[in-house]
């Protein structure tokens, strides 16, 4: 892309009266360069079954084109028309509790249902045929924040049986891998297989989740293939993932069907703005294709499906967040949305304009950014990011632990979040990888939240990684079950035992927090572990810490094993945030990762990359309401926003909620 | 009415053995003058379908008549017989979640269902025909605490479509007012209209609530018309509303079908007795017909559908509460009920007698009041109340906010309650008015809880009221949406903008409480606002207070606009109780409302009116467990309870939980 | 029995690979003498309908027999095969909310359903016929922890009507005892009787619970009779109750069909180990047949259906718990289970061996006990227990109060638990008796949790008990309703009034705690009562305590009436634990129960009995992590575990989590 795109989703059709000209005038005035259209209004495209309308959209596209504004066109399939529901109620999602989705909310149908697919395909082909030559369109979005919508009724169950037949061949094999002999539930033939609704068997449940993820991949791949039949060279196909790390869809698999990945990060602003969860969302979006990505939606004024959590950004926050996404590798930032709505569930999910539809405080800041990007967008686009550290994400482990939780407070995701937050706090950028990732050696450190469900192959690959010089941080419960969520009948942590240098036969929950004996990491008041203890017995590893407790003191809490040319650090318990930071810090230092980014004030965060012109870029952000100073440690640069030079070792003061972009020269 | 009525609901048929003579002896002994009969026992009237029994009731009526006790007879339709459920299960309420009411509880049927109506009509006509000439009967109660019982299944949905056709004409109009274009849900014809069960659209939901209220009005009007065919001149028809302000029924509309309104206030006693919620209930009952009303049920010993909240009144409390209701304009106080029940869900909802059915502490106090009323009842009856202040209640706004709540802690009702409590604490009596109320100018001050849903007509009428000299206290969210719950596409507060003298484009939730800068109302520790901020920009109004906050300090928290001959005070945020009291106080003073009632000790409350003989009456109550003294500020009077004179400026000491009734002479 | 049995449930069929020989080797090595087999794996017995497999079990039985290990064989009926569910979905439990049990969990069928019974009977007869002559089998377990599984659908409802017809004869009688006249719900004939699902009537609900209990009794009696047709002389039939006191089954009635009762106590260990709830479970198991019992399942390593509450015992705890059960009268202790499972819902309900299936810390302690019992088992078996105190348990009262609760915090069970805990703390052993228990006079003291539902006969029997010299401790709500849960229409506490020496007409809930005036029991900070007050008026009783409160001070809180040759102490309110202990202490002293067991350190508990050789036995346990000393007060004895003599008055020091067994000589 030649420059950064900046814009909003635009729904002229939602407005109480025609404002197309007024809107385009405001857009031009603000520096907006792109809008997303069409993905939300199936009944505007097809008000009655088989009757298609295009004039309303032609007029919008033509006007945008005239104004030089680019368009991303969406397929309108995530929210079905009333006539479709009335005619084909059988396409609605049937949930595990037997209830059927009612009409009213979007995203409530069975995405595998052939009747739904039939109407989807027709409306997509109609739109594509009509607009394939329109010059304003740069790309297509297929569907919107797709999931499987808790659809799990009899039709889905039949699909699951087909999936099982293909994967396992016979119910004999299922009896074995899931241990159906337990409670006398051996199955003799597929017609006896009980439905998911009452199932307690963890292996069955984890496999069912895997199947559900494939349904979403299949649906989006199918849409992308239809769109690909029509799209012009140079146009792209994308899908907009909702924010965070998803366990209900396989973002990596879906991304293989897309030309570029998109994401919709929404996050807390005002006093809570620190951009960590936004960064995690961006890290995923960048990692799924190992490439630049688009932000298709993000906070404009306020968000929420009611008016309980209305938090408009403070002055400066909207602007700094744009640069936050660009620093993560985004090539576009688009708000949801241009207007605010006067009816419907998202009345309080406000756009750039308020309900009064006139310029306001936010529009002013939006315009400031629009004009800045007109100038510096070409330098910011296509940022190259190379990370030394990766976090390994396992959706299977999330579900495996979800079905056998170790805590009401902590779970797989809270551990993953803690580790990401720790690295963010240390100003260490990360990629997100999965158990399928083969090329591990490109990372100096791999951090592994509880890898509860994993095949021998995956565990052996991690062990190999360490042996070859990688530094592995493993957490409790890793290695406990195989890929079928079945506990290994050997000493834990199974295939990781040699690399980790210990074994255990027992574990215990903890009702209270415990201290580590002698505060080995100098964490002071936060010298605290909790929730879970693996009763580790050392083979070759060294203990980094022991528990302060009459009984548990004999078991190490944290261990490290020098293994081959690398190392394996293991946390056998849940660490406080401070303790986690100090342990991660030692692992980074093991890997030779240290430096000036670690000396910044807590409110200052820095992100790096190589700019479009090949220069190193350093983005500095002040996530606080007061000015913050620091010494700039890199080669001489220019702040692209102000045009001022920044010299090595120069003291830089960032105002409240502000940013500089230092491009080395 | 010639005197105050005093009595209880009476269910001789509920007793384990015949006690009619014993009960009537105790009633006579106590001074009881009225009982309510018959409304709860359909199967005693009609044990088998079409077989009617009257002998059991004839005997009771004759004995009561002989004893000179008056009777209110109820239609027994709120609890259906087992045979009716067995024969017509289709009349049971079907809820939004698809579940059907089971048999066991009362008030679980679809009150619009023709099959239910058929059996209702027959039993009502049978009873009316049989008893229309009985001399003991002074009036009839139709049904009991009627609502629509969450009935919202397919039959109700059909009724809703008919209602919509009449009101809106076409689905094109619905597409427009509800904005069904959002999420592509445009409807082409009534057969496509989705059912209420899955609906998220706020406008649809608010209209559905309106429709449900009309169903209750229609049902009670229909019953009243049947009874009117039989009743003698001088007899009345009433319905007993349950306590509080109702959002599921339209009490004003229903009252138009009644000769007199009744109400069933139940409230906390023991240490929590302050009679505020009871007063609110009474204020509604008096306001719906702008006339005296009846208390058909209230606490005798204890209340509750289990034994978790059994709180018998302390000595004196039962007695003072009778005079509390009379001071609000009641012409009758009837307990629920005479006996206590030995079985059924209300075993612990105890009557005047305990389960042992012998005189007890409560019976003694009941008798004391009975004998007092024999003497002074004729002076207390028909109290005339004229209020300077009104609270505007909007059921639509309640629902509009409920479907887009701004808080888990505060809602429309909590604001209305806070405002009533504030005025009660200031000893200012109020009427309750509605958006339909035309004659606003009779009030000096109108207090408006968040008027979120309102037509231009209503808002313009309020602006006009201020212009003509009224003093309006408006609260946040007022004026935000129109009568269809659709946000106005203009600067807020829409049609109120000129009268209020400001506008806003943005608002914010608050996670923490904030102080008002400089504590302008001297509220000390309670100088606190919370939850919600409208980011007000002044046009002509003056700011009475600003926020103490780095960002929000630029926005006024409370404003006042002198407008025409009156004023508009606006609260853009949620105030602490103390702050609310101080702000209301300034509004009252704007309107010239001040005086000695504001100097009373906190535990003393006073209520006023003009007595049956044309004299001014002042009721003073001590809502505390210790004696309280105050200077009596009005013209010389006599305490009707003791016969002692009370001179102007005399110091009066009220014992714990006691009352005086000063009638000016 | 000649000696104590020690073992585990054993599921070789659950293992990922064959380990029969390895397991038996480990069993022999550890001293294990018994295993339970077969009750959990219907599909191993009958993989397809009507096709039975025995070879897998023959092999296990033969190997065990060869190793001299005894077997308890279970009928496999508590968990149904997939083929049975697929063929007969109509046997699944239908719940009160109309939902049907799904397949996956065990114990989810209607145990009265004839189709289920047909398949049960066939598989039981097949197993019995095949194994009736196998020499290793010492007894049979019918089903497992049986309940009625919330099955309450139409089929159960029909059974209930039959039950009612038999018990009450006509609906006229029901109308009367349940007071169906209330809310006009009189029933004219059985076809009109409403189903349980919507019922609010407390009498109906309590009777329905009684009916449900009879269904379980009937089912187990039916199974026992089938097994009895086959079993050899000397073999026993048992059922394993889950822990605690059950309100959903009638353990006393069921026990009449069994040769010996079994129980499955599971309880907290680590820092929370005090063995009180385990003792209560044992007390019930011993009381139901007034005989020794078996522990069929108990904690090995950790328990839980997830990994949130994994608490392996500290060193010594597993061992001391074995002797704890023996001291309560157990003749067997069997763990659930030998292995740990690698799949299924109970993956974290760990057995003696961990998932690695190799000897571990717990196996070591298991083996220590196994070898101790080889030596001293013959002396410990068949312990005779004679208790001076009984707690009267009323399932009806539990349900009566459940349907009209007096608190969210306290209920029938919390009171029963408090009383048991109090007596346990005082080292007073108890039997558990029921309202049906006739021979009350064998106890010196009977302690009665709120006996809310009880017939005149039962209440008169208790009064008679006191008159004849017994000492009765009664608690509030006792005597309030009759056997139909109908409140008595007389002064409370009804038939208990003369014995208790007081009456009351009123009661009150309490929002705050109150003190007793003058702290009459010297409870200091715990001089606190709460929740409920019966407003007692004394007849002949004396007040032991009054409330400290302006209003309630006129009512006694605790009373005592000397009655005949005994006494009745009454608690009209909820006492703090400390207060309860001091009140119970005075009642024990009334009965002459005092002595050296009351002087022990808090962590030391003692239990007594007469050993198999006729000598008095005293078990002392140290439930703490530090050594505890006490003076041994009984005749000279030998500690069976160490063989060391223990002299009268000798100071004994017990190490942390340890036990001595003093056999008098």
UniProtKB/TrEMBL annotation, chains A, B, C:
Residues binding substrate, per UniProt: 106, 144, 305
For whether the record's keyword set contains Hydrolase, the answer is yes
Q: Which residues form the active site?
A: 145, 297
What residues does the Beta-galactosidase trimerisation domain cover?
A: 388-593
Q: What class of enzyme is it?
A: hydrolase
Q: One Pfam family, please name it.
A: Glyco_hydro_42M
Name the record gives this protein: Beta-galactosidase
Q: Could you tell me the Gene Ontology terms of the biological process aspect for this record?
A: carbohydrate metabolic process
